[in-house]
């Protein structure tokens, strides 16, 4: 590939914003440059939009992302985005042993994939491979996954004996759809064997 075939593409990578509000985000994140931040081709938010889930927190996160001028805003869930993990949410019990409202999962997904997200220019990605044609003419193929090594009582866990992304016999079907070539692997947790344990 010759250098003339490359298309200049700008990215902003965010993660673990944990309920940051719009004023804090715009004033503290880029205090001197916030008014000079150019339009970005792609924003990736790699999970943990919220501190412990909450429908209003998902809406607030979308409002923050809506304030960024970008062609594409691609978002995955993280282990703190509790309601977005259906398996976690339907099995979770609070301190008194009460189950959470299963409809909160459906409502959280509706927020992240519905009108509020559309108005913010956000695409909420399920686990799997996604391809995009950018306004600048570039093409982007990415694999997205919210799953993280199990730690405490958080959403989207996988066990330390599971290699979620590599071997065909232990990799979930959605992960097996990753093609031989993707431009970006967008995950919330670390890769297996690289800073993926706690002591």
Give a description of the structure.
By secondary structure, the protein is an alpha/beta fold. It has helices at residues 22-28, 55-66, 86-91, 103-113, 115-120, and strands at residues 11-14, 40-45, 70-75, 122-124, 128-133, 139-145, 148-149, 157-158, 184-187. A hairpin with a 5-residue loop joins strand 5 and strand 6. The longest helix has 12 residues, at 55-66. The mean pLDDT is 84.
Summarize the structure.
The protein has 199 residues and is α/β, with parallel strands linked by helices. The protein has helices spanning 22-28, 55-66, 86-91, 103-113, 115-120, and strands spanning 11-14, 40-45, 70-75, 122-124, 128-133, 139-145, 148-149, 157-158, 184-187. It is globular, with a radius of gyration of 18 Å.
Indicate the proportion of strand residues: 15-25%
Largest sheet: 4 strands, parallel
Q: Describe the global form.
A: globular
Low-confidence stretches: none
Radius of gyration: 18 Å
Secondary-structure element series: EHEHEHHHEEEEEE
Order of strands across the main sheet? 1-2-3-4
Features:
199 residues, alpha/beta, four-stranded parallel beta sheet, three-stranded mixed beta sheet, 9 strands, globular
How are the elements arranged and paired?
Blueprint: E1 11-14, H1 22-28, E2 40-45, H2 55-66, E3 70-75, H3 86-91, H4 103-113, H5 115-120, E4 122-124, E5 128-133, E6 139-145, E7 148-149, E8 157-158, E9 184-187
Parallel strand pairs: 1-2, 2-3, 3-4, 6-9, 7-8
Antiparallel strand pairs: 5-6
Helix pairs in contact: 2-4
């Amino acid at each position: 590939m010759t250098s003339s075939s490359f298309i200049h593409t700008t990215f902003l990578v965010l993660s673990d914003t944990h309920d940051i509000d719009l004023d804090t985000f715009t004033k503290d994140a880029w205090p001197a440059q916030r008014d000079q931040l150019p339009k970005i081709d792609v924003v990736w938010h790699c999970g943990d939009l919220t501190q412990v889930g909450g429908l209003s927190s998902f809406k607030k996160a979308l409002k923050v992302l809506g304030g960024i001028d970008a062609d594409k805003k691609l978002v995955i869930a993280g282990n703190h985005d509790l309601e977005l993990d259906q398996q976690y949410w339907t099995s979770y019990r609070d301190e008194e042993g009460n189950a959470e409202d299963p409809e909160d999962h459906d409502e959280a997904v509706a927020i992240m994939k519905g009108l509020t997200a559309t108005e913010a220019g956000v695409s909420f990605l399920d686990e799997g491979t996604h391809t995009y044609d950018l306004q600048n003419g570039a093409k982007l193929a990415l694999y997205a996954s919210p799953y993280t090594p199990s730690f405490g009582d958080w959403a989207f866990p996988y066990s330390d004996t599971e290699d979620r992304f590599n071997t065909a016999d232990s990799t979930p079907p959605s992960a097996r759809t990753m093609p031989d070539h993707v431009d970006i692997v967008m995950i919330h947790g670390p890769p297996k064997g690289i800073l993926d344990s706690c002591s």
